[in-house]
Design goal:
Number of helices: 2
Number of strands: 19
Structural class: alpha+beta
Strand content: 35-45%
Strand order of the largest sheet: 2-1-9-10-4
CATH architecture of the largest domain: Sandwich
Distance between the termini: 122 Å
Shape: elongated
CATH superfamily of the largest domain: Immunoglobulins
Number of domains: 2
CATH topology of the largest domain: Immunoglobulin-like
Length: 292
Amino acid sequence: LLGKCECRQQWWSDGLVTVNSCWGSVSVVNSGRVTGSDRQQLLGMMVVASVLVHLIIGCVMGVSVGVRMKALEGPRYVVEGGNVSLTCSNVTTRPLAWFPIQGVQAQLGPEGEPEQVWLLEVGQEAAGVYTCEVTTEAPPTFLTANASITLHVVAPLSGSPVLRGTAGVVSEGEWVAGHCESPPATPTPRISFYVNHTPVVKEFMSEVTVQNTVNNKQVVSRSVGFSAHRRLFIKGHLLLECRVSIEKLVWRATTDLVLEGNIVKNRATGVRSQGYNEWLLGTVALLVRWCY
């Protein structure tokens, strides 16, 4: 009596089988010749059936632990042109067959790690949902366990966002307006405004505008507007900042606004300081002349 319990592993992206599969089966082999009475034959058949059931249950229990991605759990981001590793746990069976996706360069993991695959120099065609599936093949009972992750390929901004609008010196109560636009990127970036490093509430910002480019990238833009209240200025200065982000990547554009009254005070202070310095130098010169 021989028994063999294995599994099938498959990877696919967006419904297409892309990586590997392995499979096996439970088999019962009677290498001897059955002799004796019908009762003995029936007893032998019952033993064979019992062993077969236990083998099938063993297959089921072996996969019931579940399958998960160890290297990528949940949505992940990789910069265009980079490499990423995908790993499906609980699978070490042989043989393995790998099925490529057109346009995606893949490489097997190191020897002894058949469940790992590397996607190399990824492009936009590599973005999508990847699923690892483990299936027992032990008729008449089949069990399937799978897990999926979403891979996002990031084409970062080629430069800083562009911030236009009010600049330089402003009067108290003057309307401050700004408009910010990002260079093309993917996935769609987030865009927001900050005043002195504090987020601007959405009531003072317009809705985000998204424009698609010919190379399947997105340009985002947004506007902001508010009155120049004195309380918004720190020591007469207000830092207006536009931030564009993709996941943890952040790009900034800033402008420094100066309250008009603060310039007058600074100039007055500078004049007094200059007059005092001239008086001090003159006094020292007189003392030196008197001493000699």
